[in-house]
Structure formats: structure tokens, C-alpha cells
Specification:
Elements: E1 2-6, H1 13-23, E2 29-32, H2 42-50, E3 56-58, H3 62-68, H4 73-79, E4 90-93, E5 96-99, E6 126-128, E7 136-140, E8 143-147, E9 160-166, E10 170-176, H5 180-189, H6 197-203, H7 207-215
Parallel strand pairs: 1-2, 2-3, 5-6, 6-8
Antiparallel strand pairs: 1-9, 4-5, 7-8, 9-10
Helix pairs in contact: 5-6
């Protein structure tokens, strides 16, 4: 199978739309790896994902868990909490384990650049994870670990980050450029309660800044 791994969209419908237009149906499945809806346009983002029909697969991230727990009122107001009720925490396709952060926890923090990373939960041959919004493809112990990066809230460069996994072993790390300035302006003008994330979309965040935040 050819799987598009789309992680951490964070309700950024313009970014997701650009990625889907670039893929243009050239995959067997679209794996949404958690933190799909929390952002400026949750309803539009959900509609885009659902438009893919049976090829769309979903796992929950920490924000889907918050939604189920009643801790994300913004998203609940737009799409309801039941929409993520049946999303599993992990999913295996073609022998690849897809999880949100680590196989053990949806808020686990692992980065190749961070000495505090605990890779012990990674035991499967190939694992695709997200949460940290940093794209990488590394080997730790018995596992090849791939992070596609974030479609909606970028690091390193202001673009949409994602990946394609083919046959359970071949990984292509991808990016898709779109109008991040216009998206950031629209996000800042929206009623989303975190308008400061517009700067995240416009300029991205460096890995060094992420390391500062998680080490503090």
C-alpha cells in the first residue's frame, strides 16, 4: 500500500487542501495521525478529511483525547466531541505502526536532537509518529522511526510537512508550499482563541526553540 501520513494538521484547512491537491489521489490510504481538528478551521478540516471516503484512516492525538474529555470547548462547538469517539490511539497498516507521539503515550516527546528522549517504547520495525512537528527519519534500537512533521503548524520552514510510506518500508519525506501569509492573516482574523499561532504558520518555529521549550 501507498499511505500518505498527514500529522498535526491543527485545523489548518488551507494547508491540508494544498497537500491533498498535490497528492491528487495517488495513494491507497490517508492516515491522519492525530491533532487533526484543533485550530482555526476544525469543521472545514474535518470535511476535507471525510471527502476522502474509506481511504481516510484516523488515529487520535492528545487534542482528540482532550476533546473526548471535555477539555477542548472550541473544537466541540464546531464539530462535537463524538466525531473522534471511535478513533484508536494506534493503527497498523502494512506492518507499520502509526501512533501520535509514542506507542506508549499521546504526549510523549522524542526528538533526535533532544538528549531527554526516551525511545524505549519503540519496538516495532517501523513506527510513524508525530506530536513534535519536526520531520525526521531515524533508527533507534530495533525501530525505524519516522516523523512526517506537521501539515498545519510548521517547524524549520513555513510550509506543510508530510510523508508517503510505500509497502511498509519505503519512506518519502515531503513538503507542500502554500500561501502561508494569507493563511496566517485569516487565522489571526478568525475567532480562534489562540491567534498567536498565526505567527507559527507564517514564520515557523526553529528546532532550537522547541528544544528550549521542552527542556525548560
Amino acid at each position: 500500500m501507498r499511505v500518505a501520513a498527514l500529522y498535526d494538521v491543527h485545523g489548518n484547512a488551507p494547508a491540508l487542501r494544498a497537500v491533498l491537491e498535490e497528492i491528487d489521489g495517488d495513494v491507497d490510504a490517508y492516515l491522519f495521525g492525530g491533532d487533526l481538528l484543533r485550530g482555526a478551521w476544525p469543521q472545514e478540516t474535518l470535511e476535507l478529511a471525510r471527502s476522502l471516503g474509506d481511504r481516510a484512516r484516523f488515529i487520535r492525538g492528545n487534542w482528540e483525547r482532550y476533546l473526548r474529555e471535555g477539555r477542548d470547548e472550541w473544537t466541540a462547538q464546531h464539530v462535537g466531541a463524538d466525531v473522534v469517539r471511535d478513533w484508536p490511539s494506534t493503527l497498523t497498516i502494512d506492518g507499520v505502526l502509526y501512533c501520535h507521539a509514542t506507542p506508549a503515550h499521546d504526549e510523549g516527546m522524542v526528538l533526535p536532537q533532544w538528549d531527554g528522549s526516551d525511545w524505549s517504547a519503540f519496538t516495532q520495525p517501523v513506527v510513524v509518529c508525530g506530536h513534535m512537528h519536526v520531520q525526521y527519519d531515524i533508527t533507534r534500537g530495533p525501530s525505524r522511526i519516522v516523523n512526517p512533521g506537521s501539515v498545519g503548524l510548521p517547524t524549520v520552514r513555513a510550509t506543510a510537512w508530510w510523508a508517503v510510506v510505500t509497502g511498509g518500508r519505503d519512506v518519502e519525506l515531503r513538503t507542500t508550499d502554500y500561501d502561508t501569509d494569507a493563511t496566517a492573516r485569516a487565522m489571526a482574523d478568525s475567532k480562534f482563541p489562540e491567534p498567536e499561532l498565526a505567527d507559527f504558520v507564517r514564520t515557523s518555529v526553529s528546532v532550537e526553540r522547541i528544544l528550549e521549550l521542552i527542556s525548560s
